Amino acid sequence: MIRIPGLARLVRTSAAVAVLGMSAVLTAPGAAQAIANGTPVTEGDYQFSTKLTMTNIPRGDGSTYNSACTGALIAPQWIATAGHCFHDVAGNRVSGPVPYATTATIGRADITATTGHVIDIVEVRQASRRDIALAKLATPVTDITPLPISTSTPRTGTILRMTGWGATSSVNATPATHLQTGQFKITRVSGTSLMVTGYAPAANTSACVYDSGAPYFTENLDGTQTLVSVESGGPACPHSQNETTSRVDDIADWINQTTGTGTGTPTKPRGNSR
Length: 274
Description:
By secondary structure, this protein is mostly beta strands. It has three helices and 16 strands. Mean pLDDT is about 85; it is low at about 1-35 and about 265-274.
C-alpha cells in the first residue's frame, strides 16, 4: 500500500505500485483517481461535471509535474473536489491561494469541444477532517445549474451516479478525453466516509486514476441531481471492491457558508436512480 502524508490512498495492490513506477506523473504526490468500465456522457448532460488540470506542481527536489482531478460546480464560483488535489511539496493539504496553476473545464463532455468554460482556480478552502476541498473560480459561471448539496444522511443500498474525467484503467493511465459515467451502490456509511461498489454498467465499474474529487450524486424523481459524496481513493482499477468517498451532507452548512449560497434548506434527495 502506498501512503503519502496528507493525501488519500492512491493504490492498495502491489500490481498498482508497479504501474505507478512507470510514470513520473503517476508517482508524484497528488496523483488522483477515474472511471473504468463506465459509459461516455452525452454532450449536454451533467454539465456541472468539472475537469481540473494542474500544471507545474512542485516536488521536493525542485522538479515539477502535471496532474488532474475531477470535481463538480456547486455554486456559480465554486467547485467541490478532493482535498488532496491541492497540497504542498510534502503532500500536506493546503488552503488559501491555489498552490499551482489549475484550470477548471466546465460544461462539456468532450475535452476538445468549445462549449462550456475554461476558468482559472484562484483559491482553495479545505474541509476539516475529511478529503474535501472547495476551489474558487476566477469568474462565476452563470449559464450552468450548480449541483445542490445533500443534507440527508446517506443510506446503505442507495444507488448513486458518478461522472469522471480520469483514466479507464490503472495500466498506463492517462486522463480520458471524454467524460465518463457509471452507477454505484452505497455499501457502508462510516463516519465522514461512504463506501461504494460498482453497480452499472458492470460490477467492476470503478473509480480510477485522475478522478479524485469526482461527484457521486442521486438522480431524483423530478430529473434533478443532488451531491452525496466525492471520490477519495481505492484499489487499482477496474475493480469490484469498496471505493472510499467523502460525505457532504454533514458539512453542508460549511459548504453553503463558504460558497455564499445562504443558510436556507438545500435540496435533499427524493429518490434513487433508476
